[in-house]
Amino acid sequence: MYNTEFGYSRKDIFLIGAGLIGLGYAMYYGLQAMGMEPGYAGNWVQLIIFLGICVGWISTYVYRVATKVSPGGAVLELQALDICSANTRCTSNVA
C-alpha cells in the first residue's frame, strides 16, 4: 500500500522543490528591492535556504528520537518476530 501522507509521492517532492525555488527567487528580489546588492542578496538567500533545510531535516530526526518513533524500528521488530516464529528455540525478548 502506498503512503498517502504529504512528502511521500513524486508530486509532493516536485511541489516542495518548486516551493523552495520560488522562495529563493522571492527572497532574492525582495532583498534587492530593499537595497541590497545582487551578489550579497544571492549569498544571503543561499545561506538562509541551506540553513533552513538543514535545521528542518535535523529537527525531524530529533523529533523521531524524542518520541521514539523510528521508521526502521518497526521493520526490525517484525523481522525478529518472523525469525522467532520460524525458530522454535528463539529466546529473543522482542515481543
Describe this structure in words.
This protein has 95 residues and is mainly alpha-helical. It has a domain at 10-69. It has helices at 10-33, 38-67, 71-86. The longest helix has 30 residues, at 38-67. The model has no long low-confidence stretch (mean pLDDT 84).
Topology, please?
Elements: H1 10-33, H2 38-67, H3 71-86
Which regions have little confidence, pLDDT < 50, spanning 5+ residues? none
Task: Give the C-alpha Rg.
Answer: 22 Å
N-to-C span: 25 Å
- Strand runs, count: 0
List the helices and strands in order: HHH
Largest sheet: none
User: What structural class results from the helix and strand content?
Assistant: mainly alpha
General form: elongated
Quaternary structure: single chain
Compute the number of helices: 3
The amount of beta strand, in percent, is under 5%
Helicity range of the residues? over 70%
Mean pLDDT: 84
Structural descriptors:
single chain, 95 residues, mainly alpha, 3 helices
Could you give a quick summary of the protein structure above?
With 95 residues, this protein is mainly alpha-helical. The chain has a domain at 10-69.
